[in-house]
Amino acid sequence: MNETGKPGPKTKRRAIALAGLIVANVLCTSFFAMDVITDFESLGTDEAFHLTVEAGAAVVLVVGTSFMILELRRILQRNASMEIGIRAARGEMQAVIDKYFAEWRLSDAERDVALLLLKGLDNETIASIRGTATGTVRAQCAGIYAKAGVDGRSQLMSVFMEELLSEPLGALRDGAAAEAA
Amino acid sequence: MNAKLETRDAGEAGIRIIPVWDPLVRLIHWSLVTTIVLNGFITDPERKLHEYVGYAALALVILRLVWGLVGPRHARFSAFPPNPIAAMRHIRDTLSRRSSLHLSHNPLGALMVYNIWGTVLLLCATGIMMGTIRFFGVEWVQEVHEAAFTWLMISVGLHLLGVFAETWMSGVPLVRAMVDGRKRVPAGREAE
Ligand code: HEM
After folding, report:
1. Domains of chain B (ranges plus CATH)?
2. Which of A126, A169, B13, B75 has an alpha carbon within 20 to 30 A of B26's alpha carbon?
3. pLDDT band (50, 70, 90) for residue B69
4. Within the 58-117 window of chain A, which residues sit less than 8 Å (CB to CB) from chain B?
């Protein structure tokens, strides 16, 4: 399986860049603040203006950095909820697959083969994973298609694609729950 | 067979890869390490650079404390509350090899983390005081500054010991997680 469950590399890079900016900003702020403190000690009358400017700059930096911190938090939170959503969708899909396999009364071996078929593997690969002959896999595929009432691999796929596209996931879950009850 | 299939998906032997440390936590950690090494062993304490680096360390710790309040789940204080009783329990469970896995800091590590932050703050505070007219040349301030540094070095030593011990006992490569942000939890281990 590929990395579709993870937030894209672009958002990741943005989060890293933002974190870098925040740290840089905070370091700058600390230097301004330090200057203000040391100047405050040796405060002459003509220093007051200089001091005010520096203190002002420090305040502006702090405010700006606060916004960046909130933005970073927002990005990270969105990533996290996206990941949970995709994981949930995956779980739902597994439930749908199990439901159909049970309905079609596939044997254990047929279930394994069907799952590999859905993952897009060809007969040779399935045979090598399962340690059986290609002919066996071919026979099992024929059995699966017959039980499912489809005439081939792409129709088998489309049974599940249709499920995925036609109903909202919430409805699927409710349906599965109703069946389980 | 089904179980075996899932194992294949997850890559190496069913390891679950869980993002825990966000970029800011990691950047702060390694920047803080840099400032401590710089000021402990490289910069001249009499020079301006020592002061600049000290302010940077202070800023980093303050930023981390803010992030502990508003940051994502594993970075928050609530994920690793200071709890000496839980820390003792963690030692006991570790010795009997049945400690639970923690996605954020484990209870003992949490105590160490707060200790390190506190010590760095104390170092910064006394360092700044030494630079002021009011406390310039005051003996005890300098003594506290030096004692705090010694304590920080002891703490860092224990910190490293803890990190490697926990890595060895739990099978989760912690240093790698502090670099790329993701903890690799071995198959069949529950994590909290
Ligand atoms: C001056 C040296 C160091 C200081 C002051 C220090 C301080 C800290 C602090 C404050 C944390 C908590 C991080 C957070 O929650 O933001 C932490 C965590 C961590 N540090 Fe360090 N550190 C130092 C050196 C190192 C080194 C050299 C390594 C690696 C070889 C390391 C590895 C780690 C790891 C793996 C964690 C996360 C532990 C966990 O998973 O609970 N640290 N350190």
Report:
1. 17-173 (1.20.950.20)
2. B13
3. very high
4. 69-70, 72-73, 76-77, 80, 83, 108, 111-112, 115-116
